[in-house]
Design brief:
335 residues; alpha+beta; Uridine Diphospho-n-acetylenolpyruvylglucosamine Reductase, domain 2; Uridine Diphospho-n-acetylenolpyruvylglucosamine Reductase, domain 3; five-stranded antiparallel beta sheet; four-stranded mixed beta sheet; 27% strand; binds flavin-adenine dinucleotide; binds uridine-diphosphate-2(N-acetylglucosaminyl) butyric acid
């Protein structure tokens, strides 16, 4: 018999550390438990939660929260060059990366220290330091929330893009990812160190997957706030893509604006630069603030409500829009 906990605070379950109450709460340790929990929740809405590192709660939830906690890592196939590893959704992402590095499997090292669960990683196609999840993704298994059937998705069906996938768009709310299968590389590894900060940090060190992972960890720890110390959800906004013509107009006033070519017609601009240039970096409105070392990260200094963090985000969006005619898109899931 499944036991839901009643009226549970989600404060320990979201990295912003926002205090809201969910009517019911249950940890999911298997597909069977997940199916039963959905069946028992038929009359109330339910939500899936992994590590809570990409959500911002703005109100209490009159429904059931399912915490994905199914565990297991198995090698499902291998040859001389590659290994297929199937990982249950409730595994911690960084612990999985550490497991790969220990076993000398390459491909995930640039994604070291990203918080959250393996099951959530395909949802926004996590990315960092020149690598996105899609480059090592082989397939995932997901449960259809209506008929409780299991379906396998290949990379094409997931429609991965920059911080997006089919699970965030067309299939939103329709499937729960139960496991993810990754294709990793045995030696020789393909080391990716094109990202500026990573190249600089590695300097003359041997470009091994171990050294890349350590460099990524060092860089991240030097500028991203540790959610255990200061509540946050990583980058609050996506980096915007703008047309070359808009960039040229902005460059007339701000020739120093950093920009990275994305396609023939578009460039990516770091939202952190736009926010910093408006003077928001290190500022705070009550307990909601903009981090002092990374302007793209909004923080909760203690008891900020989700709505207060959203209000600060709106103020930033409006200031950026007014000055640069760029609409910043929120990356974090506002609930
Ligand atoms: P949650 O926050 O629990 O959930 C996120 C969304 O996915 C919710 O809508 C939830 O309902 C849904 N979901 C979760 N699990 C499942 C599932 N199994 N099936 C279906 N839906 C599901 N992201 C990056 O891409 N790159 C970074 O470099 C990065 N750095 C970060 C640094 C910090 C300090 C923090 C706090 C966050 C960072 N993030 C980064 C964002 C975050 O870590 C990722 O988005 C991560 O994949 C979220 O995982 P989670 O388990 O915490 O998801
Ligand atoms: N910048 C500033 N001021 C700031 C922050 C950044 O001017 O306060 C400018 C600088 O020019 C800097 C550039 O932005 O060189 C890039 O900064 P950084 O390398 O810190 O990366 P980012 O663009 O701010 C993105 C991701 C991160 C990811 C890093 C590394 C998005 C929305 N964010 O941040 O992902 O870890 O690159 O690849 O794409 C996340 O999604 O939560 C996240 C942390």
């Amino acid at each position: 018999m499944l036991e839901f906990r009643e009226k549970v605070s989600l404060k320990p379950y979201n990295t912003f550390g926002v205090d809201v109450i969910t009517q019911k709460f249950i940890a999911i340790d298997s597909i069977d438990t997940l199916k039963k929990a959905i069946t028992l929740s038929k009359k109330m809405p339910f939500r899936i939660l992994g590590g809570g590192s990409n959500v911002l709660f703005t109100e209490n939830f009159d429904g059931a929260t399912f915490l994905m906690n199914n565990k297991g890592i198995i090698i499902s196939n291998e040859d001389d060059h590659h290994v297929l590893v199937e990982v249950q959704a409730g595994e911690n992402w960084h612990e999985f990366v550490v497991w790969c590095i220990k076993n000398n499997y390459g491909g995930v090292e640039n994604l070291s220290l990203i918080p959250g669960s393996v099951g959530a990683a395909p949802i926004q196609n996590i990315g960092a330091y020149g690598v996105e999840l899609k480059s090592i993704f082989y397939s995932c298994q997901a449960l259809n929330v209506i008929d409780l059937s299991l379906k396998k998705f290949n990379a094409q069906e997931c429609n991965f893009g920059y911080r997006t996938s089919a699970f965030k768009t067309d299939l939103k709310g329709k499937f729960i990812i139960t496991s993810v299968c990754f294709q990793l590389k045995k030696v020789p590894h393909e080391i990716k160190i094109s990202y500026g900060a990573l190249k600089v940090h590695l300097k003359d060190k041997l470009p091994s997957i171990q050294n890349v992972a350590q460099a990524v960890i060092d860089i991240r720890q030097s500028k991203l706030p540790d959610p255990k110390k200061i509540g946050n959800g990583g980058s609050f906004f996506k980096n915007p893509l703008v047309s070359n013509s808009l960039l040229k107009r902005i460059q007339k006033l701000y020739p120093e604006i950093p920009n990275y070519p994305n396609s023939d017609n578009q460039v990516k601009i770091p939202a952190g630069w736009l926010i910093e240039s408006l003077g928001f970096k290190g500022t705070r409105d009550g307990d909601a603030g903009v981090h002092k070392d990374q302007a793209l990260v909004l923080v909760n200094y203690g008891s900020a409500k989700g709505s207060e963090i959203v209000a600060l985000a709106k103020k930033i969006q409006s200031a950026v829009n007014q000055k640069f005619q760029i609409q910043l898109e929120i990356e974090v899931n506002i609930l």
